[in-house]
Structure formats: C-alpha cells, structure tokens
Design brief:
Layout lengths: L6 H4 L2 H17 L13 H14 L5 H6 L4 H4 L7 H17 L6 H15 L5
Helix pairs in contact: 2-3, 2-6, 6-7
C-alpha cells in the first residue's frame, strides 16, 4: 500500500474496483441475510456499486455524475438494515478482498473505511 495514493489507485484504478465489485456480489447473493435484499437482475446494482466505490475510494466521481449526490443512507432507507446485516455486508467485502488478492495493510484499511458507512446505514433494531 502506498499511503500517498488513494484507495482507488492502490487497488489498481478502474480495473481493481471492478474486480472487487465483481467478486463481491456473488458472495452477497450466497448470504442468507443479504441475498433477499437484492433484485434478481443484479447487474444494475453491480454497476452502481462500481461507480460509488470508484468515487468513495478517491477515483472519478462516477456516481455523482450519473445520479447526483450519493446520499447513501437515504437510498438504503427502504431496506431493513440491521447491525447483523451491516456486519454480514462487511464480511462479504472481506471475502471479496481476499478473493482478489488485496494484501495488508490495504485490505484492513478498506474494511475500516467501509465500516463507518455500513453501520451508518443501520435503520432497524
């Protein structure tokens, strides 16, 4: 990990973020807590997640350019997001990071960076 670079650049830019998202969603769809939250056609979700994470990780503002301000908590309010689901989401991301070969300390740094937003989306006890 090069601390002078963004997460986006440390992951390898667009290709790295795309690889992460492509690894992540098959894992999510196998998770009994998370799979019911997603539509049968997952590709639009994958594309939006790619755009969001590119932006969130310090790359181009793809999500904002396409959809406006992310307002991610508001966009997730119609889903029952529990602490358990936030933790399951992070566990799936952990698996995806491992699957694509992201090494320490970048691996842990990404999980820590995503932990705040994942728990911020919690809206159901």
């Amino acid at each position: 990990m090069n601390p002078s670079l963004s997460i986006y650049d440390n992951l390898g830019g667009a290709e790295g973020v795309r690889a992460l998202v492509e690894a992540f969603y098959p894992i999510v769809l196998q998770n009994e807590q998370l799979a019911p939250l997603f539509p049968e056609d997952i590709q639009p979700v994958i594309d939006k997640q790619y755009m969001f994470l590119s932006q969130f990780f310090g790359g181009p503002a793809l999500f904002s350019e396409a959809y406006g301000h992310p307002m991610m908590r508001a966009r997730h309010m119609h889903f029952e997001v529990t602490v358990e689901r936030a933790e399951a989401w992070l566990a799936c991301m952990n698996q995806a990071l491992t699957q694509i070969g992201v090494e320490e300390p970048l691996h842990s740094f990404i999980l820590q960076r995503l932990s705040g937003p994942a728990h911020h989306f919690v809206n159901t006890p």
